């Protein structure tokens, strides 16, 4: 191995041999010399649900309103099927070669490096980390919207409806950023399992409240709003109808985006049984649960508001009673997004820190850890100055960008469209073909390639719709 730091491939971060002679036989260590993984079906499902039932669920009523009663649920079902199928292919790539004893791939880019290699690993790394970066921006915007909703609700009721309660989202984005700076100091992915469980519970809480309010609104009006083809021409122009429909597809794609961190989640699972077996069960369970919620929330939201379904479902119910229930729902969104932000950002943190360690192995600033005693905890917290500075800078950057571009629906659509095809479909399909040595031009090879090409076209048109939507929103805002 070349020990010249300048020659290190930054994507080959985790292929570091660990020599532990006596400890490898211990019950405390796995086959790769690392501490035994302790993840289970429950914790893996919690990570996935935290990642999937994110702020994307709030835009589904708007998405169904653009597509209508037929295309809206159909597109959601298709995305759930494609996501489950390609995620099952991706789980097979956690180990290179034998599914029980092959070399572990600790991250998504590790899997691409060991199976595909070449320029594809660089493309994958760039797309993955840009996607995660974009998701963190989207979550910051969504959290600030919920904070503002709570503040405006209380202001509205305290003034008896006389004060319009206009306010800026910037202070709330800063508050969210400060909380993430603190939580970002948790060193590793496997140490935030408790945060994922709390976040998953919160996601069910606000989704359930949104669903319940939608059912109550439909029951009160005794009518199901909406049409088979979605928002009507007249309410919007024909061109707007097309662009908004494409943007809606991007929003639905965003709602199912978790493949980007699937390998990282799988790396927390203990074995036996084989990690791929547990991960497939977790994926099936999580996607079944989330799709049920998505269908209910999207459909009931559309039935409640019709063509005027809001971009954020909970904001559509206004500030009327029971306003305290909406406050609870928005508080649950905030707590969930606090955890989801960490789930998506931990892979970026690990990438940069391990690259820096390999690049400057003698740096005191990067390597040195200080033991900070914490009352009530047996082991001290290990403070690393590079981790403190770099992660704080990252959170500050996402916060500032969110303040400059606070358009939730447009950001969601762009992120979903750009990340869906390469990360959810292309790389899993290509790695699976290579891993299983599927013969070129065989029926299975052709079907997998056709699936990839179809999803590419979907991503392209959804991305175009979302970019146009963002441009129009920015123009009218300015």
From TrEMBL:
Coiled coil: none annotated. Keywords: Amino-acid transport, Cell membrane, Membrane, Symport, Transmembrane, Transmembrane helix, Transport. The keyword Membrane applies. The chain crosses the membrane at residues 44-63, 69-86, 129-150, 192-216, 285-303, 323-344, 388-405, 411-429, 450-472. GO terms for molecular function: symporter activity. Its main location: membrane. It holds the Pfam family Aa_trans. Belongs to the amino acid/polyamine transporter 2 family. Amino acid/auxin permease (AAAP) (TC 2.A.18.2) subfamily. InterPro entries: AA_transpt_TM. It is found in: Cell membrane. Residues 38-471 form the Amino acid transporter transmembrane domain. One of its GO terms (biological process) is amino acid transport. Signal peptide: none annotated. The keyword Cell membrane applies. GO terms for cellular component: plasma membrane. This is Amino acid permease 2.
């Amino acid at each position: 191995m070349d020990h010249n730091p300048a020659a290190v491939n930054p994507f080959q971060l985790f292929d570091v041999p660990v020599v532990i002679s006596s400890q490898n036989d211990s019950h405390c260590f796995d086959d790769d010399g690392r501490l035994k993984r302790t993840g289970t079906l429950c914790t893996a499902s919690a990570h996935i649900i935290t990642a999937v039932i994110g702020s994307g669920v709030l835009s589904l009523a708007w998405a169904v309103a653009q597509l209508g009663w037929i295309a809206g649920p159909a597109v959601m079902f298709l995305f759930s099927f494609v996501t489950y199928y390609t995620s099952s292919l991706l789980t097979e790539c956690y180990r290179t070669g034998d599914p029980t004893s092959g070399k572990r791939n600790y991250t998504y880019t590790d899997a691409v490096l060991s199976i595909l290699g070449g320029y594809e690993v660089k493309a994958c790394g760039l797309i993955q980390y840009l996607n995660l970066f974009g998701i963190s921006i989207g979550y910051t915007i969504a959290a600030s919207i919920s904070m503002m909703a709570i503040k405006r609700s209380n202001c509205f009721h305290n003034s008896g409806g006389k004060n319009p309660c206009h306010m800026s989202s910037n202070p709330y984005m800063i508050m969210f950023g400060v909380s993430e700076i603190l939580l970002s100091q948790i060193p590793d992915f496997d140490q935030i399992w408790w945060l994922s469980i709390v976040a998953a519970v919160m996601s069910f809480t606000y989704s359930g409240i949104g669903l319940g309010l939608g059912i109550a609104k439909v029951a009160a009006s005794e009518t199901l709003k909406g049409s088979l083809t979605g928002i009507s021409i007249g309410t919007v122009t024909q061109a707007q109808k097309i662009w908004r429909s494409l943007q809606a597809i991007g929003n639905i794609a965003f709602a199912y985006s978790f493949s980007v961190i699937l390998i990282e989640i799988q790396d927390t699972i203990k074995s036996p049984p084989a990690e791929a077996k547990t991960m497939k069960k977790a994926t099936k369970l999580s996607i079944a649960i989330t799709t049920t919620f998505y269908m209910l929330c999207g459909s009931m939201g559309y039935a409640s508001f019709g063509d005027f379904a809001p971009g954020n479902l909970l904001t559509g119910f206004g500030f009327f009673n029971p306003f305290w229930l909406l406050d609870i729902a928005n508080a649950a969104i905030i707590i969930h997004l606090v955890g989801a932000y960490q789930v998506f950002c931990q892979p970026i943190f690990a990438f940069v820190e391990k690259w820096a360690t390999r690049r400057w192995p003698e740096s005191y600033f990067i390597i040195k850890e200080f033991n900070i005693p914490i009352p009530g905890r047996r082991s001290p917290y290990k403070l690393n100055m590079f981790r403190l500075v770099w992660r704080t800078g990252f959170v500050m950057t996402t916060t500032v960008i969110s303040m400059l571009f606070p358009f939730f629906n447009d950001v969601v659509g762009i992120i979903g469209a750009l990340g869906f095809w390469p990360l959810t479909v292309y790389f899993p399909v290509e790695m699976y073909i290579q891993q299983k040595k599927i013969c070129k031009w065989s029926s299975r090879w052709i079907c997998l390639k056709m699936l990839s090409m179809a999803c590419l076209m979907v991503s392209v048109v959804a991305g175009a719709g979302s970019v146009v939507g963002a441009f129009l929103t920015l123009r009218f805002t300015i």
